Every structure is written in structure tokens, then in C-alpha cells.
Amino acid sequence: MKKFIEKLQFITHDIHQHSHIEQANIACSAGAKWIQYRCLTKNDEELLNDINAIAAICDDWGATLIVTDHIHLNGKADIQGFHIEDMDADFVKIRKQLGEAITIGGSSNTLEGLIRLASEGVDYAGFGPFFTTTTKPNNAPLLGVSGYEKAIKALKAKEIDLPVLAVGGVTLSDIDPLMLTGIFGIAASSAINQAEDMRAAYSAFYDSIM
Ligand SMILES: Cc1ncc(COP(=O)(O)OP(=O)(O)O)c(N)n1
Ligand SMILES: Cc1ncsc1CCOP(=O)(O)O
Ligand SMILES: [Mg+2]
């Protein structure tokens, strides 16, 4: 089942400036249509409190809510999909568990990983890191613009149709060169939620990508 995937995906994060709920609220009020709730520090009750509040915000604004990992919460709140960060996860098994209607995203640091994700039926892939990021320090080599060019060319040559989003350290000025590589879109967290004016930062990202 082909899913609607948004070109600009906002990822919430544990930061001191704004709670996850505030981040979702500000992003949605600035036009965000895709919120990935990424919280790896709370228990299930706390997660569901956040998720229910964010689901209501997403519902008001017509945004898709994706939760990072925590697939055991499927069915416990109005969640449209899950982004699985475990690159070795068995996505065939996860698809069987979650069903066709749930959007499933995966992450990869390599072209080979993207090919595997596509073969296991994920709906989109975050491919990174583009550049350094403090959101989740990563030892994988930085892809830079050329890393996306090479990967997209290789996927096209193999006729693999997978929405690939650049992720990790993407800032506003990176959007044009990244989109020119043929990627589907951008997933971003810190450049938006750590900006002095989050709403303006989200709008600038949106204007640049569309
Ligand atoms: C859309 C999207 N892409 C990537 C991630 C993070 O995935 P992760 O596996 O943590 O990436 P690495 O830092 O390990 O490269 C995400 N949450 N959402
Ligand atoms: C690469 C990555 N790893 C976990 S979330 C994420 C994306 C957010 O990165 P950034 O905050 O640099 O946009
Ligand atoms: Mg990972």
C-alpha cells in the first residue's frame, strides 16, 4: 500500500527550551504536516501522555504523527506510523506486526542499507548523517551532498522507488543542494527546535523545500 510521505519531516527531541508537546504545537502552527515524536527517555505512561497530546495537535492541523521506535504502543494512541532506528531490525517481521495501514520508516547510513530497507517494504528511509549533529552523535561517515548524489543515482539505476530523506545536521542553506540530488525530502530537528524563533525557522525550511 503506497503511503503519503511528507517532504519536510520535523523530529522532536529532548531539549530544555521546549517540551515535545510545545515543539509539535509550534511546528504545526507554522505549517508542519509531519511530526516524528522522538523520545527515548520516558516510560510508557509518560510517552502516552505526550503522544495523546501531540496526536490531538496533529489532528487539529491535519498532520501525520510518527513515533520513533516504541512499536509496542501501536493501537494505544492515534499514531499513524513508526520510525525504527535499529538499522538491523527485521522490517518484514515489523510489517507483519504493525499491518499494512501503518507507515513504517527506517534509517540507513549506506546505499546497501537503503536497498535492504526497500526490499523489506519500508515506506520511506532517513539516510544520513548528512553532516555532524549533536542530536545523536554518530560514527558513520558524513555523506555530504555527493553521498546523496551517488546513492540516488544507484537507486535509480536499480529502479528502486524509495522516498529517501536527508537527515542529520541539515541546515537551511543545505536544502537547495540536497534537493537537487533527487532526494525526496528532509528530516530535521535541531536547526528548527534550537532556533531562537522556532516558528520562523520551520517556515524558512518549508519555503525552501517547496
Ligand atoms: C527520518 C529519520 N531519519 C533518521 C532518523 C534517525 O535514525 P538513526 O538510526 O538514529 O540514525 P543514525 O544517527 O544512527 O544515523 C530518524 N529518527 N528519522
Ligand atoms: C540523525 C538523527 N539521529 C537521530 S535524530 C536525527 C535527526 C536529527 O538531526 P538534526 O538535529 O541534526 O536535524
Ligand atoms: Mg541508528
From TrEMBL:
Residues 9-192 form the Thiamine phosphate synthase/TenI domain. 2-[(2R,5Z)-2-carboxy-4-methylthiazol-5(2H)-ylidene]ethyl phosphate binds at residues 133-135, 169. It comes from the Bacteria. Transmembrane segments: none annotated. It catalyses: 2-(2-carboxy-4-methylthiazol-5-yl)ethyl phosphate + 4-amino-2-methyl-5-(diphosphooxymethyl)pyrimidine + 2 H(+) = thiamine phosphate + CO2 + diphosphate; 2-[(2R,5Z)-2-carboxy-4-methylthiazol-5(2H)-ylidene]ethyl phosphate + 4-amino-2-methyl-5-(diphosphooxymethyl)pyrimidine + 2 H(+) = thiamine phosphate + CO2 + diphosphate; 4-methyl-5-(2-phosphooxyethyl)-thiazole + 4-amino-2-methyl-5-(diphosphooxymethyl)pyrimidine + H(+) = thiamine phosphate + diphosphate. Its cofactor is Mg(2+). Condenses 4-methyl-5-(beta-hydroxyethyl)thiazole monophosphate (THZ-P) and 2-methyl-4-amino-5-hydroxymethyl pyrimidine pyrophosphate (HMP-PP) to form thiamine monophosphate (TMP). Belongs to the thiamine-phosphate synthase family. PANTHER family: THIAMINE-PHOSPHATE PYROPHOSPHORYLASE (PTHR20857), THIAMINE-PHOSPHATE SYNTHASE (PTHR20857:SF15). This is Thiamine-phosphate synthase. The gene is thiE.
